[in-house]
């Protein structure tokens, strides 16, 4: 009977450990960080509170910007791999480029339960429509049943109005994720230093923007010919455009990435169009379409050939957002001075 009780107690302890609950340990068995008093730590992510008894050790990320958040925080050793499309943009000039060499590229296709199970993941860092989705059954709830935790990209949080996403301004979402992940992985000083550097980068760019006078109206073109996919107030381009000195023409859309009609674009007559460069349709092909599409012929940006290209990872929530603000600010300065 004593042996049976011991076995049951052991199984209970293992079950608690698997779901992240605290289990008493001897000092020699305590996870790294526990001795300092950092763990357990409770954080809130997209409105959900989660307690971590130790830092996750086998994180799988989905999409390029999310992988680079981990790289920028120096968390490569906590990653089992990343899932991302065959990304053709610049990986070499970013300060965290070594992350691509250190961490395994698990798949160029859609993230799946099989991929994360094969990687023995203990946490998946993805976003709604950045990997997580009710339609494909890949959700935090589904992963929890497999004993795998989830962290949701703050830019993609559902905001309670149907399928709409976004709960805070985009740069605040980036800073919130850096702060929260800093707590989860016990790298709060690193996260704070990164955030301070990004805020200075943004402030320096904004210092070049005139305080008064008209602002160039800017439209973000992601993709689509029948209807354009664009960015609302809660997607990265909103802050990139506004902090670079532009007037985001779709700022009234309380969503992140969404579709509008071309008639809305024509009516709002942007002075500048920013192209999101990614996928099988090149930026040059997108530009050719915009310039040849009849309804846009009299739109100021098309008529004056004021089309600026930024890379996908510049425009989704990522540590490249501040540099994108600086780059666009330089372009808009030229538009104002023309």
From TrEMBL:
Source organism per UniProt: Streptomyces blastmyceticus
UniProt similarity note: Belongs to the bacterial solute-binding protein 8 family.
Domain Fe/B12 periplasmic-binding: residue ranges: 58-338
Q: Which Pfam families match?
A: Peripla_BP_2
Q: Which UniProt keywords apply?
A: Signal
Protein known as: ABC transporter substrate-binding protein
Which residues belong to the signal peptide in this entry? 1-17
Q: Which domain of life is it from?
A: Bacteria
